[in-house]
Design goal:
Blueprint (H helix, E strand, L loop, with lengths): L2 H11 L12 E4 L8 E5 L4 H9 L4 E4 L16 H11 L3 E4 L2 H4 L5 H8 L3 E5 L11 E10 H12 L5 E3 L5 E11 L4 H6 L4 E5 L3 H9 L3 E4 L2 H5 L2 H12 L4 E4 L11
Parallel strand pairs: 2-3, 2-11, 3-4, 8-9, 9-10
Antiparallel strand pairs: 1-4, 5-6, 6-8, 7-10
Length: 259
Amino acid sequence: MKLAEVIAAIDELYPFSSQEDWDNSGMQLGDPDAEITTVLTALDLNEETVYEAKKYKAELIVTHHPLFFKEFRSIDRGKGKGRLIASLIKDDIAVVSCHTNLDKAAGGVSAVLGKKLGLTLCCPFCPTENGGSFGVIGIYPEKATLGDFAAAVKERLHLDMIRVVGNKHRLIRTVAVMGGAGSDFISAAAKAGADVYVTGDLKYHQGEEAAALDLCLIDAGHFDTEVHVIEVFTEKMAAAMPGIRFIVAEKMKNCWHVL
């Protein structure tokens, strides 16, 4: 398949038209007429991702986070992102990103997170103007306190630590989740009737905001609330394009760690 055909197949699954106005999903780098036989998928584009693409002779890397997000004024081929770009061009490796179109999809980032946490009866709780929803809300089927549920989140997401707002003895039943950075939707989660909201990248005053709304919070981190979608995303693309070999990157890692 040509790169343009691969992009069209991805668009059928996760329409690029649903991305937010500020986003930059779609082709980041490449020749639409290039032949694609092997695709590497990853959350982020970094040196490890590019190394793996070369190892498996992949002509395309599909990431969640875009390669080009903020404006570039210069490209230094000797360091940082400039070095990655130069390396990709040298080896004819294309890059396509599915960011907010994957965030908002029915089977996207938050839906996968909800399933990973064992939620049932999930549905959107914050639909957007151009389709989809950034988060889902569902029922935690076990009788649990906030402390119990927080321990379950740590176990299911393989975390060393999480941050929590709320009384650990409070009973938890209704759970809202949003993969990545979901601080803008704290009030929406409370309005939807959630007992607890699981997301990432939360700040101190956002914890105060949630407490004032009687909403418990669990900050499980940006990486760890999103990375689980990559395997599901890859499986769906592989089913839609059986003639292409899809490989999930082995070395996806959180840049933050606990000492």
